[in-house]
Write the C-alpha cells for this entry.
Amino acid sequence: MATEILMPALSPTMEEGTLAKWLVKEGDTVAAGDILAEIETDKATMEFEAVDEGTMGKILIAAGTEGVKVNTPIAVLLDEGEDASATPAAAAPAAAPAPAVAEAKAEAAPAPAAAKTPAAPKADKSPDWPEGTETKTQTVREALRDAMAEEMRRDDRVYLMGEEVAEYQGAYKISQGLLDEFGAKRVIDTPITEHGFAGIAVGASFGGLRPIVEFMTFNFSMQAIDHIVNSAAKTLYMSGGQMGAPMVFRGPNGAAARVGAQHSQDYAAWYMQIPGLKVVMPYTASDAKGLLKTAIRDPNPVIFLENEILYGRSFDVPVMDDFTVPFGKARIAREGSDVTIVSFGIGMTYALEAAEKLAADGIDAEVIDLRTLRPMDTASILESVRKTNRCVTVEEGWPQGSVGGYISSVIMQEAFDYLDAPVINCTGKDVPMPYAANLEKHALLTSDEVVEAVKKVTYR
Amino acid sequence: MATRKAAAKPNVSAEELLGHYREMLLIRRFEEKAGQLYGMGLIGGFCHLYIGQEAVVVGLEAAAEEGDKRVTSYRDHGHMLACGMDPKGIMAELTGREGGFSKGKGGSMHMFSKEKHFYGGHGIVAAQVPIGAGLAFADKYLGNGRVTFAYFGDGAANQGQVYETYNMAELWDLPVVFVIENNQYAMGTSVKRSTKSKTLWERGAAYGIPGEEVDGMSVLAVKEAGERAVAHCRAGKGPYILEVKTYRYRGHSMSDPAKYRTREEVQKMRDERDPIEQVRQILLTGAHASEEDLKAIDKEIKEIVNEAAEFSKESPEPALQELWTDIYAIEVPQEA
Ligand SMILES: Cc1ncc(C[n+]2csc(CCOP(=O)(O)OP(=O)(O)O)c2C)c(N)n1
Ligand SMILES: [Mg+2]
C-alpha cells in the first residue's frame, strides 16, 4: 500500500519549514536511509531521509514551498508493483487532517482553569498543643537544637552536615552539643564547598539517609541552589515517583545587622516558588521546634528559614515527649476584626508591634503567622479576610515577586467581593542592603510602616 | 618546590626595605585602630582584620606595576592600604560614612577603587577567584599587558569555582596570579580538617598551572616569588599560583571564641615569625636605619591612622537619598 511521507519535525520546537529541494523524483527507487529532500527551518537546513523503501509516487509539495506545516503529506511512497495512478486517491483524504493534529495537541495541554486547586479547605484552628500542657521558656536557638537532637535520637538515618557545625558547635551555635552526643559520623564539618556538599547530601538522601544541611547563612545557599532546585526538588517528579530527596536545608535567612548587601537577603519568596520544595519560616521557638521536627520527618526536601536576630529570643515551648507542628497550618497570633495582617518569620515582629500600636488607636488587627509558605494555609487567610475585609502583608524581602504579592493574588481570586480596600504589601525597600547604619534602618521594614499601611486600608 | 626563603643577602635597597616596613606597619596600626573602633561601636557587622598577614600584600604589591589589578575577599583592608587607597576613605567606609570608598554603602567587606584598580572586597567565599580571572581575561583581550592578583584563603581554595577557573585560566593563558593566603584556618577549621591535599598550590598541576609555596611571613620572599609569578604572566605564559603561608593573629572576625587553636600557637608565631619584626631586625642589624629612624616612622604612621580614625568619625552619615542611588547605572562605567 502507498505510504504518505509527512513533513518531518526536525527539532522539538519546529512547527513549519520550507521544502527547499527534492533529491529524488517521481519514479525513483529509494532505500531506507536515502536522502529524500532538504528541509529548511529558521535555524538550520537539514536533510530528510527515507524510513522505508519503495518507489517515489507523487510529489505533493513542490520544491521551494515555504511554510509547510509539520505532518503535512509531502509525497507518496509506493510499494513494489504499485501503480502511480493509485496515488491521488490514497493521498487525498489524508491531506486534510494534518492541521487537526496540531489543534488536538494544543487542546491536550492542561487548561489552567481545570487544574485549579480544589475547593478551599476550612481553616484548621486547633491548638498546637493540648490545653494544660506544661511549657518552659526557651530561645529559638535551643528549640532548634532540641528538635535536631530529638530527631537524631529517633532516627539514626538523620545526620547533620555543614560548615563549622561540629567542632565549632555551629557558627551561630545551633548545633551546640550535637557532636558530643552523636559523634563525628553524624555531625560533620564540611569544607567551604556549598554546591558540593549540598549535592552530596542530595545523593545521600537518594541513598536512604535523611540529611540536614546547614548553610552558615542562606546567602551561601545561592552557591548550592542548582542542587536544591534541580536535584532535590525535581527528582521525585522526574523519576515518576520512584525516588525523592527527604532532607532539610536550614540556616539563618534574611538581614542580620550591618553585614551589608551580600549577607542580608530574604529567600522566602525565591524558594516558595519551587514545586517540590516545602518552605518553612518560623517565628516562635515552639514553631521552630515543632516545624523542624516535622521537616526532618517529611519525605520531601524542606527549606527551613531561620533568622539570626530571632535565635536569641525566648518563647514558651510545650514540654512534651514528641511535639510537632504540621505544615500548612497558620497560627492566629492575635484575633481581631478590623484588618488582617499576614506575616511570617521575623516579619511577625513588625506585625505584632504594629498591632499593639493600632490597638492603642482603636484599630483591632488580626495577625496571622503563616509559619509555612509552601504549603501555604490560604484558607486561614481567606477566612480572616472575609471577616475583616482588609489585608496587609508583612515581609522583609523585596517587593517584586514577593510572598505578599502572591497572597494578594489569592485574595483577589478567592475573596474579591469581600475586600473593602486594596491589599497592601509591606516589604523591605527595593534596594540591596546598605551597610551604613542610618541607611540600613531605612532599608528595613518598620512597624510604623505597617501601621501606616493598615490606616490606609482602614481609611483612617 | 620547597618553601623559598628570601636570599640571605636580599637584592633590595635600604630605601625599599624601609618602604615595606612602613607599609606593613600602616596596615598593622590601621587594623588595631579598626579593632578599637569596633569595640566602641563605631564599626558594625563583620570586620575581618589582616594583622599577621601584612607581608603578603606588601610583598606582592612590590612586584606589581602601575595598572595591575587586584581582587580579594572580605579580609580586604590590608590590600586596599597596600595598593595606595587613602586610609581615611577606608576607615570611613568601616564606620559607614559618606566619606567612605563606597559612600558608606559597602562596609568593611565591600570596597572598591577604580583609580587604584582594586576590584573588591567580596563577601562570598571564593567568588573573587573567577572574577580575578575575568579581569585578566579582559586585559588579555585588550592586550594591555596588565596582570591581576586574585587573592583567596585556604578555605576558599576548596570551592569548586576555583577549579573551574583554574581550567579556563590555563586554557586561555590568562595573566592572573592566584594568591592563596594560607593562614591555616578558615574560621574555626584548620587546613588539615578541610583537605588531605598536602599543599594547595600543587592542585594547579592538574590543570597545567605552575606554582610554588612561599614564606608569607617574609616580605622579601613574597616579593621575590611575586616577581617570578608576574614575569610568567606578563610573558604570556598564563596563570601562576602562589601559596603564601601566613597566619592571622586575630579571630576570624570580631566575635570569634578562638577555641580551635591555643594561645601559645598564636604567641609563638608572633614571637618568632612576625613579618614586621623581621624587617625591623634586618634594618637595624644591617645598619640601614637607626632606632630613631624607625621611631619617626612609627610616629608618622600613628598620625596617619589617627587622622583616618578622626575622619571616619567626623564624616557624616550618608544622605538618606543614597538609599536609592547606584542601583542601576545610567551610563555603563568604562574601564580606562
Ligand atoms: C560561600 C560562602 N560560604 C561561607 C561563608 C562564610 N565564611 C566567611 S569567611 C569563611 C572562612 C573563609 O576562610 P579562608 O578562605 O581561609 O579565608 P580567611 O578568612 O582565613 O582569610 C566562611 C566560611 C561565606 N562568606 N561565603
Ligand atoms: Mg584562611
